[in-house]
Amino acid sequence: MHGIVTATRQDEPEREPVVIGRSEHNVSRKKISKNALKVLYRLNEAGYESYLVGGGVRDILLEKNPKDFDISTDASPEQVKALFKNCRLIGRRFRLAHVVFGREIIEVATFRAAHTTGDGGVTGETGRIVRDNVYGGTLADDAFRRDFTVNGLYYDISDFSVIDFFDGVDDLHNGLLRFIGPAKERVIEDPVRALRAARFAAKLNFSLEDDVLQAISEEHHRLADIPPARMFEEALKLFQSGYGKASFAWLRDLDLLSYLLPLTDARLKSGDTYADKLTELALVNTDRRIKQDMPVTPAFIYAVMLWPDVAERAAKYEKDEGMPPVPALHKAADDVIPQQLAATSLPKRFSIPMREIWTLQPRLRKTRGKRAMQLIGNPRFRAAYDFLLLRCEAGESDLAPLCATWEKLQQHPEAQAAIESARKAPRPNRRKRAPRKRTPD
Ligand code: ATP
Ligand code: MG
């Protein structure tokens, strides 16, 4: 083990970490991805400290498969970049190195020093950390900056020990989510930690310590100030990591849903049973698809979450202004989408297909002839049909005969041909997307 300095924070006594030797824990290199090991070893061989940290260590200790691997080091982002040609530096608020191996990205974070003022570290007027880029910290400093005790465990590649500053291993065994340091302060520094609490409680099936519950209930209003782009990233992690239903329930319990889905939250609070059922079915569906390694998209989830509002408004435009169904839906979407965008962003590549799912709903009412077969060939048909099924199951039982007809139509040989040819057809309007630019947060 490298020279570990005892942990210090202004108001905290010094702390010696517990070091758990290789023979006393179950974190083995077999469970760590080859790429993560490569990064750990190369940093170490270049004379830097390097540790696996966060979900990688936590999930292996819990006998689960980690979703990704995060590494912590005393090398600066620039020094990391110099070691790996497949490395890019990202983030402004929190600068990080990404080492890219095809689809796998290993995130490497540099130890930060334990202060929040000065050039690279800034705490805004509200006590929120708006920038944290002062390097030169120790492992202990790094540990103190992390959110929960179970996320602050380190696996040291130099001797294969697990390092625990805050009794995180005990909390793991007791199924308890506890903040490192004073809970209230941690939520004020970064209100997104409240959403992270909901996510980990759901994913790990843990309970929240009383201090965590209290800090969230007192300070969650601060989530209103988080930029919509960051809120969207968190929404994806909450709803598309395989524990969407449980995460949603936690968000409702903790009264955090309004920051992510204000319209949906208002409906659920008003006791709308259709919205309740529809959202639950969609989340169950998404969780099942993830378990089966099937693709999921925020276009579908957002289409569901906003549908009750969009449908209600569209119906009003049809009735009051005599608009045909598709334009009425577009107009309703124009009203509703901006309200959602004030909470979380929703990139065009998702909002465009979301609209298509909506506008295909009235088109699905026509099941006759060649049109029907053409519709089956529409690249968005499957999503729109799944959406129709959900609506039916959520209470629009008059749609049942329509669902049955479409099920039959899809068995038709002509339908198969339409799907096949649509799959092969070039998509003329598809621009080649520029490499994804990470929105500065
Ligand atoms: P998973 O990857 O399974 O979702 P994780 O714990 O690895 O969970 P990440 O978002 O990948 O979560 O972050 C990695 C680690 O970085 C966390 O375990 C935690 O130690 C630290 N971390 C991430 N975000 C924050 C935050 N907002 N505040 C404090 N620490 C954080
Ligand atoms: Mg992670």
User: What global shape is seen?
Assistant: elongated
- Kindly estimate the percentage of residues that lie in beta strands according to DSSP: 5-15%
Q: Helical amount among residues, as a percent range?
A: 40-55%
What is the CATH topology descriptor of the domain at 18-181? Beta Polymerase, domain 2
Total helix count?
Answer: 20
CATH architecture label name of the domain at 18-181: 2-Layer Sandwich
CATH class of the domain at 18-181: Alpha Beta
Largest sheet: 8 strands, mixed
Mean pLDDT: 92
Overall structural class, as computed from helix and strand content, comes to alpha+beta
- Seen as an oligomer or otherwise, the chain set is single chain
Overview of this structure, please?
With 441 residues, this protein is an alpha+beta fold. The chain has a domain at 18-181: Beta Polymerase, domain 2, CATH 3.30.460.10. Helices cover 51% and strands 12% of the residues. It is built from 20 helices and 14 strands. The strands form four sheets. An eight-stranded mixed β-sheet has the order 3-12-11-4-5-8-7-6, sandwiched between helices. A hairpin with a 5-residue loop joins strand 9 (121-123) and strand 10 (129-132). Helix 7 packs across helix 10 (244-253). The radius of gyration is 25 Å and the shape is elongated. Residues 1-8 and 437-441 have low confidence and may be disordered. It binds adenosine-5'-triphosphate and magnesium ion.
